[in-house]
Amino acid sequence: MFIQQVMNGLTIGGVYALVAIGYTLVYGVLGMINFAHGSIYTLGAYFAWTAVARLGFSLPLAFLFSLACSVLVGVIVERTGYYPLRQATVENQIICIFGLSIVLDNLIMLIWGTVPKSFPSDIVPDWVSVGVAKFSPMQAIILLLTLVILLVLYLLVYKTKTGLAMRAIALNPEAASLMGINIGRLRLQTFILSAMLAAASGTMIGAYYKIISYNLGLSTVIKAFVVSILGGIGNISGAVVGGLVLGQIEGLGAAYVSTGYKDAFAFVVMILVLMLRPNGLLGTFTREKV
Amino acid sequence: MNSGLEVQQIKTMENKETNLPSSTPEAASPLLLDAREVTIRFGGLVAVNKVSFQLHENEIVGLIGPNGAGKTTLFNAISAQVPLSEGSLTFRGPEGKIDLTRLQAHDMTRIGIARTFQNIRIFKRMTVLENVLVGGHWRYRQPAISIMLGQRAYREEERKRTAEAMELLELLGLARYAHDPARSLPYGLQRRLEIARALATRPRLLLIDEPSAGMNDQETMELVDFIQNIRRQFGLTVFLIEHDMKFVMSFSQRIIVLSSGKKIAEGTPAEVQRHPLVIEAYLGEEMDYA
Amino acid sequence: MVKVLAETKALKFLDKRRKWLLVGALLAVAAVFPFCVQSSYLVHVANLALYYSIVAVSLDIVAGFLGEISFGHAGFIAVGAYTTTILNMRVLPDSWISFWIALLAGGLLAALAGVVVGIPAMRISGQYFFVVTMGFGEIIRFILLNWQSVTNGAFGITSIPSPSIGNFVFTERFHYYYLFLVILLLMIITISFLRYSYIGRAWIAIREDELAAEAMGIRLTYYKVLAFSISSFFAGIGGGLLGSYLNFLAPSNFLALESIMILVMVLLGGSGLIYGALFGAFLMTGFNEVLRPFEQYRMLIIGVLMMVLMFLKPRGLLGRE
C-alpha cells in the first residue's frame, strides 16, 4: 500500500516536474507569468484524445500528434498574448495572459463540450501482477517517458547554443541582447518548448487518469506555480525536486490524511516553504540593488 | 512669503564666501557620526574593508573614489540598508549615542539621517507635494482609526504638515510644481525634489549619493549652490558621494577617498589632491577608460 | 507667467467643480434608481453591481494603492460571509441587532485573516504574492467544503434570514439596494480619507519604490499588512451582506475565478483610483448580465475583452497614463 502510494506520487510528481519546467522556463526567459500554461496542457490532452478516439491513432502516435499541434498553439499564443505585452507592466501581463487562458479554456469547451472525455481504457493494461506485487505498465511508461524528456531537456538547455542563450537571458536580459542574441526568436523558441512540455504532460496525465475535462487548466497552472516556488523560480533542477516533493505530498496526504484536502496540500506546503525558505528549496534570491 | 528672497540672500552670501578657504577645524564642532573599522562583505567579496572616519556637525564632507570603490555600499550601511559584517557605526542622536547597526532602514528618519539615491528614486506617480509629505511621514501621530472616522485631530495634523511641506517647497523653489506629478519634472528638478523629500524628514545628517550624475557642468554648479544653501539654512551635516573629482573639490571641507573598499586618504581637498595613492587610484581608472 | 499660473488654477477649479457636479448627479440617480425602473430584475442587477463595487473598491487598497496583485479576495469575502451567517443564525441570540454584530465580527475576522495571510505574504512580493493569496483563497474554500459540521460542505447554508433594523425587515430587493448603497458610500468615504492621509501616501510610496519608502521611514511590513487587513475587513463586510441578500451561501460562490473577476474589475476601471474599481464593478456586472443569453460564449467574450483592454487601455478605462 505504502509502496504503491510512493509509486503513484512518483509518477504524478514527475509529470508535475515537467509542467513546472515549462512554466518556469517561460518565466525565466520571457519574464512573464505563464498563466496560459495550464490551458495549453489541457489542450494537449484533448489533441491526444482526438487522435486516439477520433482518428484511431495508437497512443505513441497520438503523443507525437499532440506535440506537433502544441507547436502551433505555442506560436499562436506567444504571438498574440505574450509578445505584444513584453514591455507592459506585470498587472497588464497577468490580466492579458489570464484573458488568453480563459479564451483557450472556453474554446476547448466549445469544441469538445463540457462533458469530460474518457480515454479508451484498453490502450495499456492497468495492472500486471508480478508475484505478490502489482505493477502498472502505464506508470512505468510515464516514468520512463518523463526521464527521457528530462534528459532531452537537460541536453537542450545545457549543451546547445539555444540553451546557453536561454540561460543567459534568464540571468541578464540586457547583457544577453547586447551579446547579439535574437531575443524575439528565443522567446518564441522557449515558449514552443514550454508548450510541448505542457502538451506532453497533459497527454500523459490524461492517459493515466483516463479522463479529461476542459477546466483542468487552472488547477494545473496553480500546481506549476507551487512546484516552481518549491524549487525556486527559474530553476530547472529545482522544479524536478519540487515536482517530486509535491507528487509525494499529494499522494501520501490523500491516502493518509484526507482526500478532501488533496488540492489544498499544495498550497499549505507552498506557504510553509515561503515562510521558512523563501528562496525555494534550492533557489537563490537576491534583493534589489540600490 | 518672503522665503524666495531669503534664498536669494543666501545665494549672494554664498558667492562671496566661495573664494574663502573653507576648512573648519574638526575639533570645533561635536562629533556626529563615528565609523570604526566598518567592513561589509557580500559572500566572498569585501565591498568595504575596515573603513574608519568621523563626521562632525555642520560639516560638508565628500566621499570619492573610482567606480566600485564601495562608496554607495558605505552609504547603504549608514542608512541600514546593508548590514555590517564587522565594525561599528555610532550616531549622536537627540538622546545620546545610537548604535546604527541595531536599527532598521525605516528607523533612520526618526534619529535624523536621510539620504538620496544615485539613480533618483522619487515617487514618480505622486505629486511633488505628496513626495515631500512622505518625508514627514514619521512625525505623524494620529492612528488609522482617527483618519477613517475623519476626526478633527487628524485633519489638524494633516493641515500642519501640508503647510510645512509647502513652506519647504517654496524655500527650495519647487512650490509652483507642488501639484504636478513628480515624474513630469525635468531631471535637475527631480534631483532637487529628492533632496527636498529628504529634508522634510528634518535630518541632521544628509547623505547625498552622486548628485551630479547625469548633469552637465552648468546644472552641477547650480546644484552645488543649492546644496550649500540648504546646508547653511538647515544647519545640516552633509556627506556626499561624488565620482567627479573636480566638482567635489570645489566645495567639500574634507574629503575621504575610497579605493577597492579601503580608505586610502582623508583630508582637505588640497591635501587629498596631492596624495600619491589618490593620484594612483584615479590614474589607474583613467587608463582603464582610455 | 503669473497669468498662465492663474489660468491653470482657474481650470483646475472648474475641473473640480465639474467633478463634484458629476458626483452629485450620480448620487441623485443612485438615490431614485429603484423607483425609476419598474423591473425588479434591474434592481437585482444593481444590487449585484453594488456588492461587486464594495468588494472591488476594497481590493483596490491592495491592488491599486499598494500595487500588489491579490488573487485571494474571494477567500476574505468567504470568511466574512460565513462568519456573519453562522454567528447570526446559530450563535447570537435571536434579535435584530445580532446580524449587525455578526456583520462587524465577520469583517473583523476577515481582517484578522488578512493579517495572518499578510505577514508571510508581505515578506515577499510580485509573483509569489499573488500565488500565496490565491493559495489562501483556495485553502479557505477547501475548509468550507470539508468542515461539514459547521459549513454544511458543498451543499452550503440555505434560508439565511434577512437582516432588520428594529421592526423594519430587509425583504424587498430595493431594501437591499439602499443597504448596499449606504455601506458602499461609507466605505468609499473612509477609504478616501485613508488614501489622502499619511497612510495612503505610505502605501503609494511603497508601490512606487519600496527602497526609497523604507529610507523615508515607512515600515514596509506594517503598512503592507495594514492595507491587507483593512482591505479584508471591507471584503468581509461585503461577504456578510451577500449571504443575507442571496439567502444562500456555498463554497462555489468563492472560487478562484471569483477573485480573479474582482481583480479584473479593479484593473478594468483603473487601479488605485477608487472610482476606477467602482466603474469596473458596474461594467463587469452589466456585461455579465447582457451576455447571459449567450451563456456559452460569455467567458470567451470576457477573455477576449480582457486581452483587448490590456492592448488598448493598459491603465484601465478611466486610468491616466
Describe the protein's topology.
The complex is a heterotrimer of chains A (290), B (290) and C (321).
Chain A: H1 2-30, H2 37-54, H3 59-82, H4 90-112, E1 117-118, E2 128-130, E3 133-135, H5 137-159, H6 161-171, H7 173-178, H8 183-209, E4 211-212, H9 217-231, H10 236-256, H11 262-276
Helix pairs in contact in A: 1-5, 1-6, 1-8, 1-9, 1-10, 2-3, 2-4, 2-8, 2-9, 3-8, 5-6, 5-8, 6-8, 9-10, 9-11, 10-11
Chain B: H1 3-17, E1 31-42, E2 45-56, E3 60-64, H2 71-78, E4 86-93, E5 96-99, H3 108-111, E6 113-115, H4 128-135, H5 144-148, H6 152-171, H7 187-199, E7 205-209, H8 217-234, E8 237-242, H9 245-249, E9 254-259, E10 262-267, H10 269-274, H11 276-289
Parallel strand pairs in B: 3-8, 3-9, 6-7, 7-8
Antiparallel strand pairs in B: 1-2, 1-4, 4-5, 9-10
Helix pairs in contact in B: 1-8, 4-7
Chain C: H1 2-36, H2 40-65, H3 73-91, H4 96-122, H5 127-146, H6 148-151, E1 164-165, E2 168-169, H7 173-195, H8 198-208, H9 210-215, H10 220-246, H11 256-269, H12 275-290, H13 295-312
Antiparallel strand pairs in C: 1-2
Helix pairs in contact in C: 2-7, 2-10, 2-11, 2-12, 3-4, 3-5, 3-10, 4-10, 8-10, 11-12
